[in-house]
Amino acid sequence: MRAVVQKSFGGPEVLETVDIARPEPLGGEVLIRVMASGVNPVDVAVRSGAYPLLGEPPFGVGWDISGVVEEAGPGARFKVGDEVFGMPFFPVPRQGTPSTSPHPRGRSLVSPPRSATWRPPLCRWPR
Question: Cα–Cα 20 to 30 A to 20, which of 62, 78, 99, 115?
């Protein structure tokens, strides 16, 4: 799977897209095919080192996601094919979410409203 990681603190130039091993979801976790992800001020602060929430790099940043469940661990509250969005528990030592398949615990996700869409240019939510 692909993920966005950083190996040092700094600006956007420290972010790299890399291939990593596909994780197996643990109990209560789901593996998600990401359709949309977001960047927030905390992501910038963590990436720059101004807010060392995750300690020293390397790590992935970003926690807001929307996608489809590809695999569910034992006891997960969502099943394969469910559409979900949310902010996986953070900090997560395994990786951030700007990847193709993050694996958050189901309690940090919800089903999106039926009117939501992943169509470009951005994921849109009703106002």
Answer: 78
